Amino acid sequence: MRFNICSTKLGDLTDDAVVCYVTEIKSIRGPYLKSLNEATDGGFLKVIEAEEFTGKNGEIVSFTRPIGLATGRLLIVGLGDAKKLCADSFRKAMGILSRYKGFTQCKSVALFFGDHGDAVYYQAAVEGLLLGAFKQLDYKTGDSAEDKSRLEYLSVSTGKSAWIKRAESAVERGRVIAEGQILVRELAQTPAADLTPRKYASKVQKLARKYDFSCRILDEKAIAREKMGAFLGVSQGSEEPARFLILRYDGGRKSQKPIVLVGKGVTFDSGGISLKPGLNMHEMKQDMAGSAVVVAAITTAARLKLKQNLVGLIPATENMPSGHAIRPGDILTSRKGKTIEIINTDAEGRLILADALDYANEFNPQAVIDIATLTGASLYILGYAGAPIMGNNDKLLDRISDAADVSAERVWSLPIWDDHRDQMKSPIADLVNSGGRPAGTIAAAAFLENFIGDWPWAHIDIAYVDAEPSGKPYIPKGATGIGLRLLIEVISNWKKL
Ligand code: BES
Ligand code: MN
Ligand code: ZN
After folding, report:
1. CB of 287 closer than 6 A to ligand 1?
2. What is the pTM of this model?
3. Tens of pLDDT, residues 353-408
4. Structural domains present in the chain
5. Ligand 1 centroid distance, CA of 374 (Å)
6. Is 447 exposed, middle or buried (0-12, 13-18, 19+ CB in 10 A)?
């Protein structure tokens, strides 16, 4: 899609369709609404009086051949309550519009922003448009050309020519961020056979070359040299060898310590010998979603040239049952030297993260954030509506919460108490990998806490928010890519803790 930023007046926009935004209304007041009513020969007032259009977010009315306008179609889109107007109002409205026939059938569309001059509005509108139009990867044979969008040219018209500059950078930022989130979705939806640790590693290496960040790949020998016994314990049951990815993007000053991002990269989680039930096991191809967020965050940061030094660490492995697999009752020795009694081989994410978190010490980080589809128990905390966060530094957790308010991705902070730490103690080793059902999400974080160094740390559990069950305005059913906008927001506003 080609973007063009202008300050062309509503009447002069020549695109196939022009989109106008309206907040909730009961009557026609003010010059803007009056001009829309005149262009539609009073049709706009009629749909308002009939309550066919009230301006609720995502409502759309379409008028062809508007009077006095150069365009062939006027699309009036609701933004919702004016008092609650925010970036997400635009993101949501555009998400719905992105699948609207009268929109997708046009080759060129102009978005008329008028007085809405906030840069985050332009950005969010582009994000909503691209994210809402996302189609799941499919392997269907035959034509599905019907639901293909014809949209090629998108104009963004600002109310003032002085706003063009900031609209240009906001639109570009929105496009790059949406593409980052879409990258997460695509990786997460890829069948595990097409995204083995080796295939995943070479995909990421290609991205690194294209977007100019570095990617080192440790094979199993190198991983063994690093003594990552917990990580290797998980991978030993699989025919597919594990890989450990080290990504680096240096956008900051040389002296600046990096922010380290760690992502769970389980390319398929069968549960191992503690095999999962068959129902929904296919969804476990998405158990690398956390790592995909890390890959996309580094890619996006490189594309936006953010001024921070970043490291991405990704332990990538399958969790499979076999004659070589770890057994419940086995003891693993982690890179840090701590011993772990395996209670349940399905609690594998924390094992691979343990070694990756310990490896973060190599980079003398100023902070470490890990992101993982870690616990099924998170479904019973915030459901699909938000991600639990935990950690050792309230400032860092507050920062993530504030960023989530901006990116509209919702997180909520949970405590880690000594009771939870006690849950993870083993009678025969330093730790158990499963402390049973109580507070499963927190218990997992209490386990991870044993492997962090002397730095601020936050853990984001995205199990369940990584997949949308039914479909939302700009999040179609399937992999969501949640976490990407959040991390980019955190990194963009980063200051020393
Ligand atoms: N990958 C799963 C967590 C998960 C479950 C994510 C469902 C998304 C949807 C993780 O590896 C796991 O199996 N966790 C276990 C831990 C338990 C055995 C202590 C869980 O949550 O049941
Ligand atoms: Mn598991
Ligand atoms: Zn898992």
Report:
1. yes
2. 0.98
3. 999 999 999 999 999 999 999 999 999 999 999 999 999 999 999 999 999 999 99
4. 2-142+149-157 (3.40.220.10), 182-492 (3.40.630.10)
5. 6
6. buried
